[in-house]
Design a protein that fits this description.
The chain is built from three helices and two strands. The protein is mainly alpha-helical and 77 residues long. A two-stranded antiparallel ribbon has the order 1-2. A hairpin with a 5-residue loop joins strand 1 and strand 2. It has one domain. Helices cover 56% and strands 10% of the residues. The protein is globular.
Length: 77
């Protein structure tokens, strides 16, 4: 699926490439920055699969949240 990204300067980019989309994002949150770094690393080493590694990392973060807040805590899910 193609994504349209519009920045502050009026530039628009249409892409379905995860690495391109991740490069264009202005990320502030520390966990999100890690996801961007993972995508950049995947792109530079392999050249493909950036969306897949971001989805894997996102699932790992979801599972880690259970250990951080407690397995039985439902208020944070």
């Amino acid at each position: 699926m193609d994504e349209l990204i519009h920045d502050d300067k009026g530039n628009a980019t249409i892409s379905n490439d995860g690495a391109t989309i991740m490069k264009l994002l202005d990320v502030v949150h520390p966990a999100a920055k890690i996801l961007v770094d993972i995508a950049k690393s995947q792109e530079s080493k392999v050249g493909d699969g950036t969306a897949r590694v971001v989805l894997f990392a996102e699932e790992f973060l979801k599972e880690a949240k259970l250990f951080i807040y407690g397995v039985h805590s439902k208020s944070y899910t």
